[in-house]
Amino acid sequence: MISDLLEDYGLDRGRFSLHWVSSAEPDKFVAAVTETTQRVKALGPIKDMGVTTAMEWLCSCSGCEIAILNIGEALVPIITEALDIVHSPVLMDHKYFGQTGEGVELTIPEAVVGIVTGGVNNTEHEEVLHEMRKKCQVLIALGSCATGGGIPALMNGMNGVETLQQTQETPSTDAGATIPTIEVPTLLGRVYACSEIVKVDMELPGCPPNPALIAEVIVSLLENRAPNLPTKSVCDTCPTRREGKGAVTEVKRFISNAEFDPAQPISDMRCLLEQGYMCMGPVTASGCAVGRGAPSCIAARVPCRGCFGPVQGKGNQMLDMMNALASNGIDYSSVVDRRSLLRFSGAHGNLRPAKTK
Amino acid sequence: MSFEPKIIAFCCNWCSYAAADLAGTARMQYPHNVRIVRVMCSGMVHPELVMDAFQQGADGVMVLG
Amino acid sequence: MGKVLNLAPVSRIEGHAKIAIHLDDTGNVEDAFMHIQSLRGFEKFIEGRPAEEVPRIVNRICGICPWMHHTASNKAVDGAFGVTPTATGHKLRELLQVMAHINDKILHFFFLAAPDFVLGPDADYSVRNVIGVVKAAPELATKVVQMRQLGQMMIERFAGKAIHPIAAVVGGFSKPLLESERQAMIKDTQTLLDFAEYTLDFAKNNVFNKYLEVIKQLGVIKTGFLGTIDKNDKSFRIFDGDLRLMKADGTFTDFKTEDYLDYLGEHTEPWCFGKMPYAKSWGEGFDMNLDAPKGIYRSNTLARINVCDHISTPKANAALEEFRSVFGRPAQQTLLYHYARLIELIYACERTLELLNWDGITDTNVRAEVTPGAGRGVGVVEAPRGTLIHDYTTDENGCITKANLIVGTTHNIAPMNMSVKQSAIALIKDGKYDQGILNQVEMAVRAYDP
How far is CA A269 from CA A243, C89, C181, in A? Predict the structure, then answer.
């Protein structure tokens, strides 16, 4: 009976056994113990009852995965106990077409939580994303590529596949090369955010996302509560000194270093916009500063370029920035290549090939 | 570095525990993975006791009468 | 009718690839491919961008080696704008790049490669991963996580961002290093150096000696090698120097990085998004034939260890001498990439200490004056995965008009295809294969750390 019930509890029946050994049969005792030990050894450790989790990466760079690792020591109990990772190309060897590659349909195991990094720029990404949606109860888009296209979505400002063909014509490439088509996915010519393709339950932007916030999202899911995520702009988390814009009428390129005393904390440095540099803090979602005391680029004394995407989901970083400059009497046309202010949010139709004059 | 399971063996005071004792005095080799719990009779090992052992981290459970 | 085994995704690597093994009617290998599944178009979409912004865009090519893209790109922009960075700015860039190498090597060896060796190539896939390693060796695993975190935080505290950095800038660096920061870094790096030495010993005892027979066979092919050497004493370099292209017989040619187009070409295949660089200057064309390859060379750790005359730091050099006494020069065994990687780990720690102990490192003159303008610049560094080349042309406004990139992994795409084929042919006979055997084919790829 116990053996039957064990399976109901998710344990292998071979983990329990009953033996009859009389007081004069030490050899029988040794045999029983040895046999049981070998059997249990073969069954391996009892699999964690963690929350099943599947991870996938699409049009991505693996920076988000490194950000997950940067959670540090706190990550060890998360991945060994709290979560039961059932699929993750970067960490483990579960295969789409069976472990010996004979299957025909791309399959990912069912999981409670699904984490996707990267946007979608080819048919394989589409297929994997649909499969993740089908198999995961809660789907999380992690990082700015998954939430808004990210840097690869700069491609959306070019001429799609026609432009990609030109990557086959660089000076070092042998003549006559065309975009590969055999046994590789078909390129879509655009980069899409995950939520343009499937329903996404939660988004955590950042390039890379902040490890502290990734941990918060995972822990909040385990505790069955809403995550505590920042909602304001980078400026709201920036300790630099603000005195008013003064005489600034144009913004300058970052070809000279900011003015600051390196021995003093960030709070002693004047706001980089007030120093005349293009800084996208006002139009960018905060998050990078959590646990660090200052926005991470500002900590390096470098202006923000908007890697967490717009402050509100539907915000538009280029439009909002131009608005912010113009309403402060700063010449918006002093921004060189203003379209690249959409470099982290080029999906959702924000960035298209420009109409040239 | 291979996996070494923890196995709980519930042994009857009158038979298998005595056998284990004898195995020990006769210096017979058996795996060190077992932790022996002496009970007055293997019949007193309630299923709850078995589940309790698993919940507390045992990888395998034996009942020896 | 034969069949095709599609191993997708290739796992515990850092990119998107698929292995396809074609079996004939008798169940033997007819052919095998590694298909690179991703194409993003960085060379094109940086066109039009102000060049000084590009080093903080192209780092997104790779989230594992963003520092190398960052520094190579900055060098290319320096060249296009005709700027020479200040001495301290130059050294700060090298410091951060070399520090980034430390973490990368710890990451690859323990998180991605170790499961095959610690748990065994044939272990079930559900345990043959870093989580399995943590359970099998919890103390070591915790130490590894701590060491990697120490390295990452050392970078982040000083440079703001460890992943997708911004602190290297055209003309030098965005901020100087304080004396207190330098002292803290010296202390941390010393800890990492101790761990690096421990790691090499651990690997020698538990991996290289134990798997010597596998090393001698798995994925072994015969190719040339490409790597960076010091301009003067021809020693091992990962940040700057000349390039050395070595043939399989050990003879070599050295050349200036900006002349790379005269020596290297990129072959393409219609079944692979990644291009396949080859040695154009050998004049023999391109062929992945296992017995008579043409134009094929390899890059990344084993290549660098093979091409250098010696290593300038003592502990790494001692390790190199020991390595050469056993495996010769050039060593061709693919799994030795792991060994070479750990020699580089020791170098990276020693070099970090050297740079931190240089008097000028805390100087405040970190950035030269910059005027955007027209020109061309080639920036080359050694990324963990191989020689990384950024080549930009700018207009009079300092915006990019043309870019050519050859990234580290691509040099090894042709060799990886060959290693896949070699190992598949050797391991799969008469229709006999299982997940353990197929994982060994992947191990031949994993050694290259693509």
Answer: 11, 21, 19
Are A96 and A213 part of one and the same domain?
yes
pLDDT tens-digit series, residues A98-146: 999 999 999 999 999 999 999 999 999 999 999 999 999 999 999 999 9
Length of chain A: 357
Reported as type and span, the H/E element at residue C267 is strand C264-267
**How many Cα atoms occupy the beta-carbon half-sphere of C183 within 13 Å?**
3
State residue C308 phi and psi, 5-degree precision: -75, 150
Considering the domain architecture, whether residues A206 and A306 belong to the same structural domain is answered as no
pLDDT tops 80 at residue A3: no
Q: Where are the alpha helices (DSSP H) in chain A?
A: 2-8, 26-43, 63-69, 75-77, 123-135, 144-148, 160-166, 211-222, 296-299, 317-327
A272 with A217, same domain: the answer is no
Distant-in-sequence contacts of C310-314, Cβ < 8 A, 24+ apart? C310/C233, C310/C234, C310/C235, C310/C236, C311/C235, C311/C236, C311/C343, C311/C347, C312/C230, C312/C233, C312/C235, C312/C236, C312/C351, C313/C346, C313/C347, C313/C350, C313/C351, C313/C354, C314/C350
A114 and A239 inside one domain: no
Percentage, residues of chain C above pLDDT 70: 100
Asked whether residue A227 is domain-assigned, the answer is no
ipTM: 0.96
Instruction: Report whether C237 contacts C224 (CB < 8 A).
Output: no
Among C38, C35, C59, C276, residue whose Cα is nearest residue A188: C38
Categorize the per-residue pLDDT at A260 as very low, low, confident or very high, splitting at 50, 70 and 90. Answer: very high
Which residues between 22 and 41 in chain A have a beta carbon less than 8 angstroms from any beta carbon of chain B? 22-30, 32-34, 36-37, 39-41
* C7 to chain A, closest Cα gap in Å: 5
In a domain, A30, yes or no: yes
Contact check, Cβ <8 Å, B34/A24: no
Q: Residue B49: is it exposed, middle or buried by C-beta count within 10 angstroms (0-12/13-18/19+)?
A: middle
One domain, residues A143 and A206: yes
**Domain interval for residue A302:** 232-357
Query: Does a structural domain hold residue A133?
Result: yes
Question: Looking at the complex, does the CB of residue A183 fall below 8 Å from at least one CB of chain B?
Answer: no
Please identify, among A222, A254, A280, the residue that sits at the C-terminal boundary of a domain.
Answer: A222
Work out how many domains chain A is built from and give that number: 3
Same structural domain for residues A55 and A194? Answer: yes
In terms of domains, do A36 and A59 share one? no
Two structure tokens written together for C307: 């091409």
Q: Lowest mean pLDDT of A52-66, A332-346, B14-28, C28-42, name the range.
A: B14-28
For B35, name the nearest residue in chain A, comparing CA atoms only: A33
C-alpha distances out from residue A112 to A64, A71, A94, A133, A312, Å: 20, 21, 17, 11, 28
Domain assignment present for A10: yes
In whole angstroms, how far apart are CA A35 and each of B6, B37, C105, C304? 14, 18, 42, 51
Among the three residues A166, A199, A222, which one is the final residue of a domain in this structure? Answer: A222
Q: Half-sphere exposure (CA, 13 Å, Cβ side) for C342?
A: 26
Cβ-Cβ contacts under 8 Å between B and C: the total is 6
Q: Is B43 on the interface with A (CB under 8 A)?
A: no
Closest C-chain CA to B1: C136
A18 with A66, same domain: the answer is no
Give the tens place of pLDDT for each residue, C309-354: 999 999 999 999 999 999 999 999 999 999 999 999 999 999 999 9
Check A151 against C57: CB less than 8 A apart.
yes
Of the candidates A15, A21, A34, the beta carbon closest to that of B31 is on A34
Q: What SS3 state is found at C432? A: strand
SS3 C3: strand
